[in-house]
């Protein structure tokens, strides 16, 4: 058993007969009244995100997890196939178990979290950023680097990303997986 001071991003807890992963938290100490922790919890079974507030000192049941490296092989409808990089065993996961499934390209290595008690996969942690190639966007205009204007672009995985005006088709860009936003152009 843990309490609210142990809450951190990525912690898996058992709450309301389900397992949730903490995706955001904020410790709040109001001037009047007891302290509390505001959290955003994502269900690892359904993918649903809920807001919850825990009072200070509240006991929470944490779930022991193991993390293993897996390589993404290919998508098949709503299921995604992965291969363990150590023993080459393959697993399939549903799309809702993956944080940024639309930014996942074949061959990408990700961390898969497993429940240590029963060995079931809980969620997939993407790397902080991925490098993707632009497959479609309006042509760039030379000199459009002074403003922060953006235009929509489609990357090789099919995801839509807003990019600066100087980006062209065929350019490689770095995309942050947490928000799906453009970081920089790769030469």
Overall geometry comes to flat
Examine the coordinates and then state which fold CATH places here, giving the name of the CATH topology of the largest domain.
SH3 type barrels
Total strand segments: 16
Gyration radius over CA:
20 Å
Distance between the termini: 49 Å
Q: Give the averaged pLDDT, no decimals.
A: 86
How many domains, in number, for the residues?
3
Largest sheet: 6 strands, antiparallel
What's the CATH class of the largest domain, please?
Answer: Mainly Beta
Strand order of the largest sheet: 1-6-2-3-4-5
Give the helix tally. Answer: 0
Please state the structural category. Answer: mainly beta
Give the fraction of residues assigned to helices.
under 10%
Please identify, by name, the CATH architecture of the largest domain. Roll
H/E topology pattern:
EEEEEEEEEEEEEEEE
Q: Low-confidence stretches at least 5 residues in length (pLDDT < 50)? A: none
Which percent band covers the strand fraction? over 45%
């Amino acid at each position: 058993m843990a309490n609210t001071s142990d809450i951190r991003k990525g912690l898996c807890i058992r709450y309301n007969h389900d397992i949730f992963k903490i995706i955001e938290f904020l410790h709040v100490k109001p001037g009047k009244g007891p302290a509390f922790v505001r959290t955003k919890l994502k269900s690892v079974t359904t993918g649903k995100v809920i807001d919850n507030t825990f009072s200070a000192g509240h006991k929470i049941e944490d779930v022991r997890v193991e993390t293993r490296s897996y390589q993404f092989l290919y998508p098949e409808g709503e299921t995604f196939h992965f291969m363990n990089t150590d023993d080459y065993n393959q697993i399939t996961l549903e799309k809702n178990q993956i944080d940024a499934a639309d930014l996942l390209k074949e061959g990408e290595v990700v961390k898969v979290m497993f429940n240590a008690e029963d060995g079931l996969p809980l969620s997939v942690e993407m790397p902080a950023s991925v490098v993707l190639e632009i497959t479609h966007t309006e042509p760039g205009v030379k000199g459009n680097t002074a403003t922060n204007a953006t235009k929509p672009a489609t990357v090789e995985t099919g995801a839509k990303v807003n990019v600066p005006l100087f980006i062209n088709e065929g350019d490689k860009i770095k995309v942050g997986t947490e928000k799906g936003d453009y970081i920089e152009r790769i030469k």
